[in-house]
Design goal:
There is one protein chain. With about 625 residues, the protein is α/β, with parallel strands linked by helices. It has 24 helices and 16 strands. Helix 22 packs parallel to helix 23. The chain is globular, with a radius of gyration of 29 Å.
Length: about 625
């Protein structure tokens, strides 16, 4: 009692703790920042323009959140921005590739004893009812969700599951999960509808067959993850997902189904990439957008507006070289998914880009989630991002921009007409090309690929190169099919070309002059040329150009890169041209003021931070006969 009284007294005495501190206006903050910048441009120095096309400020204030009424809602309250439930628990899902039904079943039973709480089955070939029954043998379907992933988009596995549940006399109300049935994703991938008709009624037919037989199962999925993995930004992923959602809501309500039933039976599958805070905001925005969209359709029970989101770590930024970095990427992406409030998460094994998952890669993928749940206790706090001026503003900005894009697609007639006219593809391609450009200029980094590569790494000979690069399907008249793109592909193709060539060309770093500058330039050049897999010959330094050129020629170096200071380049460059005698390709590390003079002397190539590394290295490969 004494302690409680003391606390009340302290709180009473300090309730006006900040009363003596005047409020600092935005103008005052801005003035202080600009003064500290000493004339530098505020926009260029501190404002970040995202891939989504909006600006991120270096600071946010409480007045950035004014007039946002949804911020007063609590977890579990409409419009569910802060989460659909009072807890932040999520399903730890592992997807299993079904090559052999018996092996897949054995693996499923095994991983259920290793922390997995939801199963996914990737089924490349259609299963018979007997095979399907064998696949599920021993799995207690009433206790965990099961998801089915296939390319045929027929709804086969929802139907087989319903038959299986009836045959085994299971409690159908406890059967949860989903199938990746999405006719629009099929259209996006293949350029035609699965049933061959533009006005496809497959979704209504499947919904009619499944809704009563599996009342808690979600037979329809919106595969939004495919947009991000094809190159879209996060605004586009959200906006196109909404457009897909409206297609299904319209189709199913027109077929006479109740909006409350429909809303509960759709699952959204998102990718979650490396933009840590923006991805958190994306998932928060997705909940709010879906809630308001379904509310506009007249749902009677607000609980029907609770979105069910599955997220998968992104494919587009995974790499083949230095693949263990994929573990780090997956970890931060998984964190974004959890903190954003995903209902279930699948962490892709780090070996995904180049091979089937191994026991080790699957274990690491599982453990990412287990550690975050059991050791970091991420499941104990609901919506930890709430109240952050930055993330709340991001959430609102993403929602607003996604809604505008959604309306633009609707004005074009909806998803199918927009896809037929290549509107959706052009927007995604624009985002992808911007990302590839940033990669080439190294403004965006894929660690181990376009920055800091391991020069001693070689691709395993047994890796099927054809598997690494997706094929672009032709337009069949219904729009240009999307293609999943890993942004590292062009760099990897270039490096594989070097690896598989008969002779790795040597790049000789001729270091001379100012010790600090030659060392820095050599480090930059070594990193630059290692991206293409060239053999880098570094040196401690030469006392004169003649010794350096002699050493390079003795090693049959195809290329000599001069590494020194700007002030010394004029003298050393001219000597290098004269002594080289045209035997090796010459380049200078840097962009010195004497560049024009060196070009006149015969040095054509200069590498620096503003160089397009991809185009330059491809050109050097050609010159070196690779």
């Amino acid at each position: 009692m004494q302690l409680k009284t003391t606390i009340r007294v302290i709180m009473a005495e300090n309730q006006n703790l900040f009363a003596d501190f005047p409020e600092i206006s935005r103008e005052a903050w801005q003035g202080k920042i600009e003064a500290d910048l000493k004339g530098a441009d505020f926009e260029k120095k501190l404002v970040w323009r995202t891939m989504e096309g909006f600006k991120l400020m270096p600071y946010y204030r409480t007045d950035d959140l004014k007039d946002k009424d949804y911020l007063n809602s609590l977890p579990g309250e409409f419009p569910y921005l802060r989460g659909t439930e009072l807890t932040n628990d999520w399903e730890i899902r592992q997807d299993i590739l079904v090559k052999n039904v018996s092996d897949a079943n054995a693996k499923a039973l095994d991983v259920l004893n290793k922390g997995v709480t939801a199963l996914g089955f990737i089924i490349p070939k259609a299963l018979s009812p007997d095979d399907f029954e064998q696949l599920l043998e021993g799995i207690v379907l009433e206790s965990l969700p099961v998801y089915f992933i296939s390319d045929d988009n027929t709804g086969l596995y929802s139907r087989l599951l319903a038959d299986y549940v009836e045959k085994k006399s299971l409690d159908k109300t406890k059967i949860q999960g989903s199938e990746n049935f999405d006719v629009l994703a099929f259209l996006a991938k293949n350029g035609f509808m699965p049933c061959g008709k533009s006005n496809c009624d497959c979704s209504a037919k499947l919904f009619s067959e499944i809704k009563d037989r599996l009342p808690a199962f979600r037979p329809i999925a919106i595969e939004a993850k495919y947009f991000q993995n094809s190159g879209s930004n996060l605004t586009q992923e959200l906006g196109f997902a909404l457009s897909e959602a409206v297609y299904y809501l319209d189709k199913l309500t027109d077929a006479g189904f109740d909006i409350d039933d429909i809303a509960k039976r759709i699952q959204f599958n998102y990718a979650v990439g490396p933009n840590y805070f923006i991805e958190i905001a994306k998932l928060r925005a997705a909940r709010m957008l879906w809630a308001k969209l379904t509310d506009a359709y007249g749902i009677k029970d607000k609980n029907a507006a609770k979105i069910h989101m599955h997220v998968e770590t992104a494919k587009w930024n995974m790499s083949v070289y230095d693949p263990y970095v994929n573990m780090l990427r997956a970890t931060t992406e998984c964190m974004s998914g959890i903190l954003g409030g995903a209902n279930s998460i699948n962490v892709l094994p780090f070996s995904t880009p180049y091979g089937d998952p191994t026991v080790f890669s699957e274990r690491i993928a599982r453990n990412v989630q287990l550690i975050l749940k059991e050791e970091s206790h991420f499941g104990k706090v609901q919506d930890p991002a709430a109240g952050s001026y930055y993330i709340e503003t991001l959430t609102d900005t993403l929602a607003e921009n996604a809604w505008k894009l959604f309306l633009e697609i609707e004005d074009a007639g909806g998803f199918i007409p927009a896809f037929k006219e290549n509107i959706i593809q052009d927007k995604i391609d624009g985002s992808l090309n911007e990302r590839l450009k940033r990669m080439a200029m190294r403004k965006e980094t894929i660690l181990g690929t376009n920055q800091y590569p391991n020069a001693e790494e070689f691709l395993d000979e047994d890796i099927d190169i054809n598997r690494l690069f997706a094929v672009q399907l032709k337009d069949s008249g219904n729009g240009r099919p999307l293609r999943e793109n890993r942004v590292a592909e062009a760099f990897e193709a270039m490096r594989i070309k070097t690896d598989r060539s008969k002779s790795r060309s040597k790049v000789f770093l001729l270091t001379i002059g100012h010790r600090a500058m030659r060392s820095a330039r050599a480090q930059f050049a070594a990193n630059f040329f290692a991206v293409a897999g060239f053999e880098i010959v570094n040196n401690l330094g030469f006392d004169d150009i003649e010794a350096g050129v002699k050493a390079a020629h003795e090693m049959n170096a195809g290329m000599i890169v001069l590494c020194s200071s700007d002030d010394e380049y004029t003298e050393y460059g001219k000597q290098l041209v004269e002594l080289n005698g045209g035997k090796s390709i010459l380049a200078v590390a840097g962009n010195p003021a004497c560049k024009n003079e060196l070009e006149k002397a015969g040095i054509k190539y200069f590498i620096h931070v503003k160089t397009d590394i991809l185009a330059s290295l491809q050109a050097f490969q050609s010159m070196l006969g690779i």
